[in-house]
Amino acid sequence: MPVLVTGGLGVNGAPVLRHFVARGERPVVIDIRGDLSLLDPDTAAKIEVVIGDFTDPALIADVLRKHAITCIVHMAAVVGEAQAMPLEAFRVNAYGTVQLIDLACRHNIKRFVFTSSRGVYGEQTGEGAHPVYRPIREDDPLRPARVYDVTKVAAEGMGRNYAAMHGIEFIALRFATIFGPGKTLRHKNYGVLSEIVEQSLAGRPVRIAHGGDQKDDLLYVEDVAAAIVAAATHPKPGHDVYNISHGVGVTLHDLADAVRAIAPNADISIGPGLNYMGFEVNYAGVLDNRRATESLGFTPRFALKEAVRDYAERLRRQH
User: Fold this and answer.
1) Closest C-alpha to 30, from 68, 56, 65
2) Strands (DSSP E) along the chain, which ranges?
3) Domain boundaries, given as residue ranges, for the chain
């Protein structure tokens, strides 16, 4: 299956490429940088990298023709800078995605897998928030609050329109909070989840001031990759949007316990309270994943302890 992956050299994209290669595929990757540092040598040898901007229609059209692409996995996006540069974020994340879908239709691409976000649901309130954590379903109201969230809602809506008008199979995946190796190497910062794992494994104390009472749905990056490949390769998906999650809430204390299972001397202290991410919008909550299980056959493979163990092993290999 000739597949094009946009943004495939990033923290979340690298495992996707590895999973495709493990299936015997030779994915084509388009990325604005040629940094292969997150890829193992075997995967790097079995992909084709095109350096460029996915919003360049001439480049995309050339890639689609040259490689006879039949499926696009679209992961590239403006993320952290979106709120500070709203016009550029909308140009890339919304307009750029729609342009890519339009090109896909013009080149008879069969399926378009779009990596969306839990941000489309906005801040969790009422029973969806602490302490009840009612699982959020795909047909729950969308309440995007920040620029990034709005761009994802816009792209999802246009994807459905193109599917209805042109018959392309459009699938949007809304992910729970993703964690895994690569953030430190690529972004030079930790984030709360990576800090607990990576600082502890490096033998350094971890002090999290607040957030120990918050539950959130955490998804290991290897399960993210498995879900994306399932969406790209399933013979007949039954829906155009799926929550990709564990379907249960865990706390930072649970993550700390998983770290201590492999590093008993880890020095981790976590204060009470909610919203440990510190965002203006508290997205934390639980996503109902039954649709993905029943329709895509996707079930997360990595429970928290197994995820941390795999995380540690991959860090060891990177270093």
Assistant:
1) 56
2) 3-6, 28-31, 48-51, 71-74, 111-115, 169-175, 177-179, 206-208, 218-220, 241-244, 268-270
3) 3-177+218-246+281-300
- Write out the CATH class of domain 3-177+218-246+281-300: alpha beta
Contact partners, residue 196, CB within 8 Å, separation at least 6: 206, 208, 252, 255, 256, 259, 268
Task: Say whether the peptide bond before residue 131 is cis (omega within 30 degrees of 0).
Answer: yes
| Per-residue pLDDT tens digits for 216-265 | 999 999 999 999 999 999 999 999 999 999 999 999 999 999 999 999 99
Residue 173, helix vs strand vs coil: strand
Would the pTM of this model clear 0.85, i.e. be above it? Answer: yes
Q: Is the dihedral of CA 36, 37, 41, 42 positive or negative?
A: negative
CA atoms of 172 and 160, how far apart (whole Å): 9
- If DSSP states are collapsed to H, E and C, what string results for 198-247? HHHHCCCCEEECCCCCCCECEEEHHHHHHHHHHHHHCCCCCCCEEEECCC
